[in-house]
What we know:
Blueprint (H helix, E strand, L loop, with lengths): L1 H8 L6 H12 L8 H17 L5 H18 L7 H9 L6
Helix pairs in contact: 1-2, 3-4, 4-5
Amino acid sequence: MHKTIDTIALGAASSTALTVLGRRAVDGNYDPGFYVEHYIKDLGIALEECDRMELSLPCLSIVRQLYVSLKAQGGGRLGTQALIKVLEQLNNHKIAK
């Protein structure tokens, strides 16, 4: 999986989040750099602002719901890269170690 991350990181999709958090996620390292519960709060603020501005960002709502699901499973104090756990569950496919 690291080889895949390295390949993607060579192109336009490269980012610190991908190279650092992507590796942590596939390694099963969910130590927080930023807590899931705080991210949910921030996503909520962003969605409130979207409502105020009469904007529709449905993907933002979906991402927030995925993180809410992770928190409901006891992952509120994990790092945001722990989202991989929800995606694994949704797909019944293990990615992380």
